[in-house]
Design a protein that fits this description.
The complex is a heterodimer of chains A (792) and B (402). With 792 residues, chain A is α+β, with helices and mostly antiparallel strands. Helices cover 25% and strands 27% of the residues of chain A. Chain A has 6 domains: 2-40 and 155-182, Phenylalanyl-tRNA Synthetase, Chain B, domain 1; 46-151, OB fold (Dihydrolipoamide Acetyltransferase, E2P); 196-397, Phenylalanyl-trna Synthetase, Chain B, domain 3 (Phenylalanyl-tRNA Synthetase, Chain B, domain 3, 3-Layer(bba) Sandwich), CATH 3.50.40; 405-465, Phenylalanyl-tRNA Synthetase, Chain B, domain 1, CATH 3.30.56; 483-686, Bira Bifunctional Protein, Domain 2 (BirA Bifunctional Protein, domain 2); 701-791, Alpha-Beta Plaits. With 402 residues, chain B is an alpha+beta fold. Chain B has 2 domains: 2-151, no CATH class; 171-401, BirA Bifunctional Protein, domain 2 (2-Layer Sandwich), CATH 3.30.930.10. Chain B is 45% helix and 17% strand. Chain B is built from 15 helices and 9 strands. In chain B, the strands form 2 sheets. In chain B, strands 1-4-5-9-8-7-6 form a 7-stranded mixed sheet, sandwiched between helices. In chain B, strands 2-3 form a two-stranded antiparallel ribbon. In chain B, a hairpin with a 2-residue loop joins strand 6 (305-312) and strand 7 (315-325). The longest helix of chain B is centred in the middle third of the chain and has 34 residues, at 118-151. In chain B, 43% of the residues are buried. Classes of the chains: A alpha+beta (792), B alpha+beta (402). The interface between A and B is large, with 95 and 89 residues.
Chain lengths: 792, 402
Amino acid sequence: MLVSLNWLKSHIDLDGYTTAELDDLLTFAGIEVEGIKSSGVPSDKIVVAQIIEAVQHPDADKLKVTKVDAGEGQLRQIVCGAKNYKVGDKVPCCLPGADLGGFVIDETKMRGVESKGMLAAASEIGLTDEEDGLMILPADAEIGKPVKDIFGADTIFELEITPNRPDLLSHYGIARELAALTGRALKQTFTGPDVEKSTDPSLVAIADDAADLCSYYSGRKISGAKVAESPTWLKSRLEAIGLRPINNVVDVTNFVLHELGHPIHAFDIAKLDGGRVIARRATEGETIEALDENTYTLLNSDCVIADASQPAAIAGVTGGEISGVSETTTDILIESAHFNPTAVRATSRRLVCTTDSSYRFERGTDPLAADLASALATQLIVELTGGTAENTLVVAGEAKKLTGDLTIDNDWFSNYLGGVTKDEQSEILTKLGLSSADGSTWTVPSFRLDLTRPIDLTEEIARVRGLEPVPASTIATPSHTSVDDAVYDHTLDLKKALASKGLFEARTIKLISSAQLSDSADSKLRPVALKNPLSEDLTHLRPSLLPGLLSVAARNVAQGASRLPFFETGTTFAAGNEAGDVIESQSFTIILGGDATNRSWANSSPRQLAYEDLRAVLDSILPNIRLKIKPADHPVFIKSADLAVGKKLTVGIIGQINPARLRELDIDVPLFAVELHLSALFELATKDQRRFTELPKFPATTRDIAMDLPRDLPTNRVESVLQGLNLPILTGWTMFDLFTDSTGQKLAADRKSVAYSLTYRDDTRTLKGKEVDDAHAKVLAALEKALDVRFR
Amino acid sequence: MAGILAMTGHFCVMSYRLFVIRLRSLHATQEHKSARTNKIHSPFSTGAQRPLHTSYLLLSTPNMLQSDLNTIQADALIAIAAATDERTLDNARVEFLGKSGRLTQASSVMRDLPKEEKPAAGQMLNETRQAITSALDDKKIALIAEADALAVADLDLTLPGRTLPAGAIHPLTAMQDRVTKIFRQLGFALATGPEVETEWHCFDALNTPADHPARNESDTFYFDSGKLLRTHTSSVQVRTMEGNKPPVRIIAPGSAYRRDEIDATHLSVFNQIEGLYVAENVTLPDLKGTLEFFFKALYGESTEVRFRPHFFPFTEPSFEIDVKLEATGKEAKWIEIAGCGMVDPAVFDAVGNERGDDAYDSTKITGFAFGMGLERLTMIEYGISDIRHLIENDQRFLTQFA
């Protein structure tokens, strides 16, 4: 909301307060100052000048050489590029030395022709004007007079009024708040109309079924009005806050709204069928052409102000085009009413029609202010149009005070707020317009709609007093580690471990496009779609972290990265069994590909990361865990497997990303990924049952096996055989060689050579050579029996 | 030369003839050995080794011995000095001190000396041996030092290192952990809640009017089920109180969602850190003290913190918190950083209704809550100007936080 300092000063004396002090005063009362602008002509060396002559510049098509009379006794030559003026117009002339906010006008030559100043557009001298080009001043402007004296300077505050304070949505409201904060008196208070109220349902009525939408409606008739341009004082008030003056009646309604915060409307009675209005529910599908020239289709939940045949206004939102005040209007009906905030909001939102009026009604207005607004509008319109107001205010419904009395516990308040005496509480509440006989039970003024519960007064005391005098205390009692704490710590440990292994943590946003859904690791999960996505790129909650990480890889490749080690942890989402259920899980996903290290002098062509690198990372975060790897078929991978520990614990999915997908993403290196359930990792970590085993006292014997196997035989089949043997003295094995030769020269192309080193040991004695030989022979026999193996 | 004089008077005891034979054989051995050595070590080849006196017989025996030892010592020192590595040095040692080295041979005269002359002769021999040994030791140390120096000759301390693969945790994670650590110091425990929320948990329970604009479909993401994506982590307050009796002291870092177009200052999915402390007799001074402690711990003890009155539906009174921070090269200015307030009793009433007990009786229980944007904290901390850097995960960005 824009607030003019000059306008405020018509309500309260603010002399002695600098702009910065007012800024602080408002800010620390809870009114956010979003901007402060000084308006007005910046220099008194900008004067009214009349253009006497304008001839074409000899060397520039777009320039004219003018001679202007700036009241100096002789004409001044100024080169000018504008086109919108004619000889004889009066325009602002910046004399040499005029400072336009850092830019000082000087005598100069333009394309070889002397120019002793500048003719200015409104925007160049701190004013606003719809016109493009030079600002054309009124014909009666006095030549040589500083333009500053015609357009007074002002300071405009842009304020953000929080939704709980509709009473601040006007100049009077802000002045009232400033009066409370500064202790200075308001220059005037507004009182009700000195007219009789009467009811006349044939003129002003509220339909029975609309009583919940409109609790009070008043109409004041003014006849014989002469609609014309508004006087300068009124226009400049409106212009200061960015409104365009229209005519003296419309301008008064706008002025009253920004003066008192209570919206009013003026109808042209001649255009109201039957010369009467009724606040009623719209009939379903009824239409109205509004002042903004849009035609709105209404519902039964909307409230309209209708004449005998059709809606003349959408209650509290906008007037109708037909019944609006125009130059030909002579008889006016001034509406001042109270509308249901929720209904106004619903209507305004559905019609996408927000006006200064709807903005205020939907935040809540004080019904008692309706009569004040009506009285002020009547007084001004009569004054400006020469019309005559009827001496009765025709009303329907009742303007009720919405606020009541609140009783507070002064001791409780004092403790809660950090030590505020009862006297201080009373002082603050009194300043704010509340009244009390005993300091405990307080009567809330009608305009403070937000003060409905005793607790609401804590805010009033706290904000006026500030937090400066409040003592600071800290509580520090132990709290138990929550499961969330343990998961948080575990996750952070994992992140740090991976970062130290050279991986980057990515954090992608949790919404993905429907096109990205097929990048999900687990194709069996059912994704969850948003009902109202913002864009095609963000339509679904991610069922997997892989889509995000693949786009991270693609982005980095596009930026020239050759290493692609990324991981992410975070929530993933899938539809549950019941309709509407969403299952949220924590996932942990790693992708690897590209160069193993950055290129350096020591390694000018780093090797490419491979599946076994991913496996190494995985093993490092799952030490001493035997993973079950079961082939699976998840489409984003060209080859994938499900990971499990034991029979029950599903750990995740691992595999190589489908090269076809990588080509689409312009990623030209193989990429490997594993998506893990963080809950499984956490379970494994918390189940940790590591116990120390005594170091072996007796020496071990190792035996190597070199063998060739079918090339497509999964290596873990060898380990299964070894494991299945259950030989107590076979304590471990390591695969130490793997060799294939696609040319078939050194080894048949469909075979692979694999070598294992087996360790034999007994914890209680040194094994005899023969025992080891026997055991090893069993191993070889078992391998031979189980697999298509040839020992080498 | 006291030793030489001491020997003089005793020499006659030894058979003169025998002595000469001994000396001759010594010479012969020596010459033979030298010749062999010379092939290898050039310094010996050009008369560096003086021939021993053939006229010993004419001189007094002690003098002859001394003179011989002088020669041996001088030769040894030359040989030692000429050694270029440990092997040639060892050759020199063997030549002079070895079993049949020149000094060892010269020592053999001791056997035949009269007892009373032995000490003086022994002393002469010892001195020579010591001189040679010490020269050998010195040379050995020098050679080792030389070899060490040679071994590091190629070490260029300015050489770029090999590259260990660099990784990093995301700056949002790092910042979140800093915040978490401080609140843990104050006894806050972590809490989480669902991101797909009911309207009740996200709005109703938090005293948000039914027609509040935040509930609009234009501002909030909804699902066909009527559920929504939480617009703030404040819903975790409600979830936590539903499941736990007071006292409750939690912080809840997590995602929140708003239907904002992504630009330099907005994300549709962003992160907040929510905090809540609820117990009997929690007061405004507790809020002030806790949050002042937090921001001073985060930005330094001397950091100025101010509370500006504001409005939130779920707190009463409510404040926004500004801290005065210096951006590099700029004057310190107030930066809005968090929102907070005393929990509105309406929130306790809503929770109480849902729980069906009086654990959160709003006449007894009070509390404060606060929330801040993780992205904003991170951007301020590291001087990041565009919020999109935080979701793009460009390595050139991430490596800056390695």
